[in-house]
Amino acid sequence: MRLDRWFKAHYPGLGFGHLQKLLRSGQIRLDGGRAKADTRVRPGQLVRVPPLSVDKADARPLSPRAMKGQGDAELLSAMLIHEDEKVFVFNKPAGLAVQGGSGVVRHVDGMLEAWRNRKGEKPRLVHRLDRDTSGVLVVARTRLAAMKLAEAFRMRDTEKIYWALVKGVPKKREGRISSWLVREATPDGDRMRVGRHGEPGADHAISTWRVVDQAGQGLSWLELRPETGRTHQLRVHTAQIGCPIIGDPKYFEADQNWEFPGGIQNRLHLHARRIVIPHPDGGGIDVVAPMPPHMTQSWNLLGFDEATAEDNQ
Fold first, then answer.
1. Tell me, what DSSP letter sits at residue 130?
2. Which residue of the set 130, 132, 248, 286 is catalytic?
C-alpha cells in the first residue's frame, strides 16, 4: 500500500498538504528513514507518526448547551485533542473563560482541579485565549513542563495560526501589521486601542495575515498569525486594516447601511486553529483544532472549504 493511502486509512482527518509537509520535514519516518507519499508500506515495517490532532478527529467541538450538562472532568475529556505524559491540548469552546474574573462562574483553570494527579499536582495553564475565542489551548501536566512551555511562548518559539471571518476584504491578499496597543478602561470593560510608540503602557504588537477565501466583497476568511501575544491583538489588528471580525462586541463597527448576514450567528468568529510548539522532552507538538459549531455553520453557508487553507500552508 502507498504511504499516503495508509495515512488516509488510519488518519482520515489529515489533509494531503499537511501530510506532504510532515514528510518533507522528516517528521514521518519509515523504518527510521525518510519516505515519500508514494513509498510502499509493507507488513512488519515501522511507521513513526508525530503527535497529530487527527488522532481524535472524531472529537466534535462542544456547543454552549452541551457544556452546561457536563461535570468538569467530563467536559475536559470532551475538549481533549492531544495528550502525552507532559502535555494536554484542549479545543476550548467559545464562551468558556480560561481564568476566573468578574462574573465568571466556570473557567478552565478551575476545572483543572478535577484532573490533579496522584502526587496532587494540578495541570498548569501556560497561555490564554479570550473567553469568546475558541480553539487550541496548551496545558502543562507538570511544573517543569510548564516552565519549558511558558519559555517557548515568551521567546516566541511557537507558531500560532488563527482563522477569522471578517467584514469586507483587505486591499492586499496578505500583509503584516505592526502597532502599539494601549489598554483603556471603558463602561463595557477594558478595551485595547492603537497607541503611539513611547506612550505610557503601550506594548508592541505584530501580526501577519492572508486572505484564504472570500464571499464577494462583503466577507472574507483570514488566516492570522500573531508574532506577539498582546490582549485582543488580532481583534484590534483586523479592525485596524478595516476588516473587523464578525460578531466582535468590542471592535466591530459597521456603517448604517451594513446588514448582518442572514444565517450567520452574531458571535465572535475567531478560532485558534493550530499550534506548533517545542515539546518539553524534545521534538515538537503540532495540533489542529476543529472549528466551533457557529463558525462551521458560517463556513457551510458561505461555501468555504477548510482544505483551501490546509493544502496551502
1. -
2. 130
Per-residue cell: 58: 472524531
Q: Would you kindly state where each structural domain of the chain is located, as residue ranges?
A: 3-48
Residue 280's contacts (CB-CB under 8 Å, 6 or more residues apart) are 86, 87, 140, 144, 145, 148, 149
Is 132 labeled as catalytic in the residue annotation? no
Specify the DSSP element, H or E, that contains 139.
strand 134-140
Residue 156 has φ and ψ, to the nearest 5°, of 60, 35
- Pairing outcome for strands 29-30 and 47-48: antiparallel
Amino acid at 52: L
Q: What is the pLDDT along the chain (313 residues), one digit of tens a residue?
A: 889 888 877 776 677 777 888 888 888 999 989 999 889 988 888 888 887 655 444 455 666 666 666 788 888 988 998 888 899 999 999 999 999 877 788 999 999 999 988 888 899 999 999 999 999 999 999 999 999 999 999 988 899 999 999 999 999 999 999 999 999 988 777 889 999 988 999 999 999 999 999 999 999 999 999 999 899 999 999 999 999 999 998 999 877 677 888 889 999 999 999 999 999 998 889 999 999 999 999 999 999 998 878 655 5
